[in-house]
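Example A, followed by Example B.
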Amino acid sequence: MRSPIDEERLKFKPLLPRGLRAISSLEVMEGEATEALGNQEKIQELLPKTYGQPVLRFKEGASKTHAVHRVGVVLSGGQAPGGHNVITGLFDALKEMHPGSRLFGFLDGPAGVVENRYIELTEEMLANYRNTGGFDLLGSGRTKIETPEQLGASRKNVEALNLSGLVIIGGDDSNTNAALLAEFFESNGCHTYVVGIPKTIDGDLKSVHIETPFGFDSACKTYAEMIGNIERDALSAKKYYHFIKLMGRSASHIALECALQTHPNITLIGEEVAAQKMTLEQITNQIADVICKRALQGKNYGVVLIPEGLIEFIPEMKLLFHELGGTLSDKARETFEYLPKEIAEQLLLDRDPHGNVQVSRISTEQLFIHTVKNALEARSDYKGKFAPINHFFGYEGRACLPSNFDATYCYSLGFAAAVLVDSGHTGYMCSIHNLAQPVEEWEVGAIPITMLMNMEERKGKLKPVIQKALIDIEGEPFKLFASKREGWSLNDDYRYPGPIQFFGSDSLCNTTTVTLKREKHVLIT
């Protein structure tokens, strides 16, 4: 039985930008040619069929008839709020183009494409998933389609289904998969067009052309609600320091956005740590300094935000990660022996499928509780009380009900994907601009995935991958944060965003992130 909020969300009708409303008369216009972010010659050598394609923009043209399409869709990687609306938008667009078109969903992520496990999606089935969170309609997975056997099996399966398009909903690694599949299909005479959708709550799939990946808005609003609740509790009890680790594998976008929404006392930003080459001791003393100043005001409480990936930005930890599994240098061994036993053990866990240390399993917040406690005990002038509590806000934000912004954004992305398949474009990622403005003013198009790529080392080998977008510490969102954080550290200027709002004024339920507004100069102060 559905809850009342589930029932109401199923009734929500996402708006479409003006540029997508006349889908039967859209034309795809080619813009400037492109090149990869880095290693251009090598990327072009590896992906010659899809490299250098132009940026695309959609515009209204003459009405036309459309072919019957058979399209596959796959959810790839970690969950992000709004994925189901990409699928429902894709379904609705295909049916609007031609009622005879059909949509097939591959099960459990990219593995479903390789193993030919799928279901046909119908209106009756999708009626239960509109505007809902999670990826439970199809399931997801992290299989990488990269070996000759996997690529060959994928081609065989999409051809057996006679698919004119394959839409991959995923983050940077998933869209790298999309680029490899598009190139392989093109090189082997397979006429299935591959389209990527920008998804990740981490916010690290950004560029000039991808203003924000979907899911970031909803996840940050969910975390900000919880942080606000913790701040209210801290201000009420006045006796605990809350160290909160926030999801974000490489970039600190979530921590920055949540700080801008909630004004905690301390927020660490990994990209700033890297730029300033801050050591573990320096970061620890920075936190301890604030705690000491607050103690002089009689404040033995506060809130500290720590991005999940921070630990990889600290120079001595980065060196340790690089040398783990081999012979440790004296410096790396010294760092390893300094760590609390439970943290050291977490570093030895198996690596993820991409060969990375699994930072989500490292209790970074507990590491800083440990180092800060030692630092405070070593200070003879500190007379306060340090009672720390640790939290990790991660999975709570991945499958929540999508905000109105994400529900609408994702529905539009589904429509855009249908247009790309219908127009015969492959190796592209859907791109929507002007997202800080009302929906009617959003501008829709697509970019070639290769323009986001460079070469990076993965498991000891250089491979073409989409470059992760980190925080620009010269950018407007970080500058706003940097101008406010000293005041927040002592003055308890806490903000309590509350839960995601679906009904009410635009300022309550149809606004987007502070980050996006600041980047687009909509929010000036």
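Example B, a separate protein, is given below in the same form.
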Amino acid sequence: MQPALWHPPVELSNMEQAIVKRIKRAKLFIFLRQVRHQLFDDEFQTELAKMFDDKPKGQPPISPAKLALVTILQAYTGASDDEAIESLLMDKRWQLVVDCLECEQPPFSKPTIVRFRAQLIKRRLDRRLIERTVELAKQTGGFGSRNLRAALDSSPLWGAAKVEDTYNLLGHALKKAISVIARQQGRELTAIATELGAEIISGSSLKAALDIDWDNPEERSGALSKLLFVLEAVETWLEDQQLSVADNIEHNLKVARQVESQDVEVTANGTPQLRRGVAKDRRVSVEDSTMRHGRKSRTQRFDGYKRHVLADLDIGVVRAVGLTPANVPEAWVSDAISADLKAQDVTLVELQIDRAYLSSKLVRHRTQQLNIYCKAWPVRNRDGRFPKTAFILDWEQQNITCPNQITLPFEVGAKVQFPQSVCASCPLQPGCTTNKRGRSVSIHPQEQLLQELRQRQLTVSGRAKLRERVAVEHSLAHLGHWQSNRARYTGLRKNLFDLRRTAVVHNLHVWARLVEQAATTSV
């Protein structure tokens, strides 16, 4: 059966007033107590209640509004599921929000929180929590326009799973597979490993079991051979035994083969060795298949994800978030951001970005009403010779004119090569190019936009516009404070959920500030 709508008291009781007076920090507890009836009105509670199956029998489900409040408080305090249950029983601030003061038993169990989180993720209702806080913040601040001015930026999020080298990746995947076989047969791991000739992976340390000179290429190759032999032995043994292979056994064997295909190559004499360079989209963890190596800059490398935040420049709330593996370009988040904005029924009219997003669909497929603000790529220093900006581009005629008034047609995304004979006889040639084949100019796919950006940042008003992007950097810093820079979960989707609920915490703080400003103005 679906839960009944929750109608918590609005006015503070005497006991609640006493608790509120004692809360000096963590003011979000107080604000959530004050606005919980607005945040979870009947309409929104009915929407959340659709997560539950409408069964005629069984215990009445817990109010989804209470579970959502606990989910938000977990993001605010960093509490685990066990800590959340403990806080509901022992922390009066949590009891104040969830309306269970002086309870002797927690209002629900840990499995209830786990199931609620799974349903939020499955039905994408974690995004609705963001939308709900945006709606209320807009109403409080008096922002009624559907036109959105926003800024988009990203920051690293380190993965929660262990990052391992090729040897440990193979050993870890094989040990997990053999452990499942041992549990199925009710035997010890060491017994199965011995039967398979895989004693090296049954201990606590693979490197200790191998016990080789890691500076010796031949010994490293021998260690790889041993691990690949174990992999073949396990696969052969399963075939000979004609056992029904559990999904997790097959999964871990596929992980081992994936590691082999991306990291190992066979020499001319048939011995395996580590592949030179890094394979594209290389897997770095057994436990989390979505973690990747990434770089925020040339010197800053990280393993995990990139979190993306789109902040409303007028209200200050986070409108949308996205999460991508660390190795993909920032532009890949475009579809996720666009889908979130579409659900909010707004029109993006101004977007502040950094250069990493210039190739995104948000920019490439922009409408005429969307203005892009970004610091343009610097013009290449050509040792005093004519820069690219000295060439005039006629966008209507698709022509480019050099400083000597030679005109050629151009194509966007292609390179224009001025004829060798023309450049050789040109009086301006010494100040233009030293290339014997003549001067060439590349036309960027977003060349027209880049020209506009360069012109804009030469003006005082244009530079002031660029400084507005600092708002999204502040939002990212706030989210990093509550979420930290280390992922809570393994897997892309669960960590996107965590990012979304952290964005809800940020938006609640913005909403609280707008409420305070409205109250001050009315007085």
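On Example B: The two ends are 47 Å apart (CA to CA).
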